[in-house]
Amino acid sequence: MAKKVVGSIKLEIPAGKANPSPPVGPALGQRGLNIMEFCKAFNAATQEIEPGTPTPVIITAYSDRSFTFETKTAPAAYYLKRAAKVNKGAKTAKRETVGKVTLDQVREIAEAKFKDLNAYDIETAMESIKGSARSMGIEVTE
């Protein structure tokens, strides 16, 4: 018999740096899940990723207080800021540019994020990443 799902929790945690402090502790605690068990499992699962990379995770909680989790790739904005070497996006994206990325960098980001994007081919994924860049005030150059 399948376990009964009681809820899911979406968090964004730096890779390899899950600890019981907020937001992890309170989110898992209210569902009665073992916080330290999650932290150890998450840190082990993300040790291949560069430490500190923001990693979205979806935790599924079951009625017997067990859980499973699935990690996603870092947000496109993280990759774009890193590629353009900027700390944050523009305040007014339409009027101001804070950095530039090349089409090759956009392709790299699209390939890294492809499995988490709602795209059927790499060209569509690149268009999505270009849109994110535009909304952050990052110019895409040929």
From TrEMBL:
Q: One Pfam family, short name please?
A: Ribosomal_L11_N
Supply one GO BP term: translation
Which residue range or ranges hold the Large ribosomal subunit protein uL11 C-terminal domain? Answer: 72-140
Q: Which segments constitute the Large ribosomal subunit protein uL11 N-terminal domain? A: 9-67
* One of the record's GO molecular function terms: large ribosomal subunit rRNA binding
What's its job? Forms part of the ribosomal stalk which helps the ribosome interact with GTP-bound translation factors.
| Keyword rRNA-binding among record annotations | yes
Q: How is it modified after translation?
A: One or more lysine residues are methylated.
Q: Which GO terms describe its cellular component?
A: cytosolic large ribosomal subunit
User: What name is this protein filed under?
Assistant: Large ribosomal subunit protein uL11
Name the species this protein comes from. Answer: Rhodovibrio salinarum
Family the entry assigns? Belongs to the universal ribosomal protein uL11 family.
**Which InterPro entries does this one have?**
Ribosomal_uL11 (IPR000911), Ribosomal_uL11_bac-typ (IPR006519), Ribosomal_uL11_C (IPR020783), Ribosomal_uL11_C_sf (IPR036769), Ribosomal_uL11_N (IPR020784), Ribosomal_uL11_N_sf (IPR036796)
Gene3D superfamilies, sorted:
Ribosomal protein L11, C-terminal domain, Ribosomal protein L11/L12, N-terminal domain
Q: Which gene is annotated as encoding this protein in its UniProt record?
A: rplK
Q: How does it assemble?
A: Part of the ribosomal stalk of the 50S ribosomal subunit. Interacts with L10 and the large rRNA to form the base of the stalk. L10 forms an elongated spine to which L12 dimers bind in a sequential fashion forming a multimeric L10(L12)X complex.
PANTHER family on file: 60S RIBOSOMAL PROTEIN L12, LARGE RIBOSOMAL SUBUNIT PROTEIN UL11M
Q: Does the keyword rRNA-binding apply?
A: yes
Question: Which terms are listed as keywords in the entry?
Answer: Methylation, Ribonucleoprotein, Ribosomal protein, RNA-binding, rRNA-binding
